[in-house]
Amino acid sequence: ECPAIDYTRHTLDGAACLLNSNKYFPSRVSIKESSVAKLGSVCRRVYRIFSHAYFHHRQIFDFFEKESHLCRRFTVFVTKYNLMSKDNLIVPMMEQEQLQGESEA
């Protein structure tokens, strides 16, 4: 069992190390086919952080998401590049109209 804060720190540190690795990602322009699977694994782990925040710290998640749309943008990214199965995307996203309506208020 790993406390959530330790899992978060470990996951983000590991993601940063992997993404900055010249062995797996030698180019900032293209990704080797052998590295795509590693990228998918990192995305699943990072998404678990969003899920935890949504289900266990909803008020903080909503406040941060309203300002940054980070989870929404991450979800669009992993969906666009098929890095995660849509079945694993469990954090509900606010509709675009809701976001625009709130920003106009």
Morphology call = globular
Rounded average pLDDT: 89
Q: Measure the end-to-end span.
A: 43 Å
**Order of SSEs, N→C?**
HHHHH
What low-confidence regions span 5 or more consecutive residues with pLDDT below 50?
96-101
What's the number of extended β-strand segments?
A: 0
User: Could you describe the largest sheet, including whether it forms a barrel?
Assistant: none
Content of β-strand: under 5%
Structural class by secondary-structure content: mainly alpha
The total count of helices amounts to: 5
Rg, Cα atoms, Å: 15 Å
Helix percent band: 55-70%
Could you walk me through the main structural features you see in this protein, from its secondary elements to its overall organization?
The chain has 105 residues and is mainly α. The chain has helices spanning 4-19, 33-56, 58-68, 70-80, 96-104. Helix 2 (33-56) crosses helix 3. The chain is globular and about 40 Å long. Mean pLDDT is 89; it is low at 96-101.
